[in-house]
Specification:
Helices cover 75% and strands 0% of the residues. It has 57 residues and is mainly α. The longest helix has 18 residues, at 2-19.
């Protein structure tokens, strides 16, 4: 169950990173992370990239 939830969060994060001009802080808040740094760690752990690296790809 947790794996599925994480996959959904990553899909939403990737979509927001690529299709909006929201800051990483705004995206992390939208996805209910306590801090943007916890979101960055989570994203990198699951994708191999930081959110900013992913946005530049």
């Amino acid at each position: 169950m947790q794996k599925w939830i994480n996959e959904v969060i990553i899909i939403e994060a990737k979509r927001d990173i690529k299709t909006t001009t929201y800051t990483i802080q705004q995206i992390s808040e939208e996805l209910n992370f306590h801090t943007s740094s916890s979101f960055v760690r989570f994203f990198k752990q699951h994708t191999g990239y930081t959110p900013l690296e992913y946005r530049k790809r």
